[in-house]
Specification:
The chain has 143 residues and is an alpha+beta fold. The chain is 38% helix and 17% strand.
Length: 143
């Protein structure tokens, strides 16, 4: 029995489209030629002095109880944006907000945040409550 194709030739898909597909992340990534493995990772740590980190933590901790985080915009404005400001200052990397990517008809759309340095790049998406489905979108964006 031949497996049914998820992505249709000639059809255009944005990153947001993958959020709407009713398939598992493994099936979607396999069709794109990638695999998906769930495992713990150890992220690199910086030896740079992170000045102002305590100040940033205090600031976020002080206003967090006063803000409703019930949508993506609220989380972007109150949590993600202040943290990324600290990261780009510390790492001296470039930040693009709502960065448009167009690889092909199956891989295109806007990234919430793209951080780029000489050695690396990082894609960040401010997500809603359904992390399982929204992680599918992020996984596709990383392709």
């Amino acid at each position: 029995m031949t497996k049914q194709k998820i992505l249709q030739e000639g059809q255009s898909y944005t990153f947001d489209s993958y959020f709407e597909l009713p398939y598992d992340i493994e099936e979607i990534l396999t069709e794109l030629g990638y695999s998906f493995i769930k495992k713990a990772i150890t992220l690199p740590k910086t030896s740079n002095h992170l000045k102002n980190i305590a100040e940033l933590k205090d600031k976020i901790t002080s206003f967090l109880p006063l803000v409703s985080l019930n949508n993506e915009t609220a989380r972007r404005e109150t949590l993600v944006s202040p943290l990324l400001s600290g990261v780009i200052t510390c790492c001296q990397c470039q930040l693009k907000i709502e960065y448009t990517v167009n690889v092909n008809n199956w891989l295109k759309g806007n990234l919430d945040y793209l951080l780029r340095s000489q050695q690396s790049l990082l894609v960040i998406e401010a997500k809603n409550d359904d992390l399982t489905r929204e992680f599918t979108q992020l996984a596709v964006e990383l392709q």
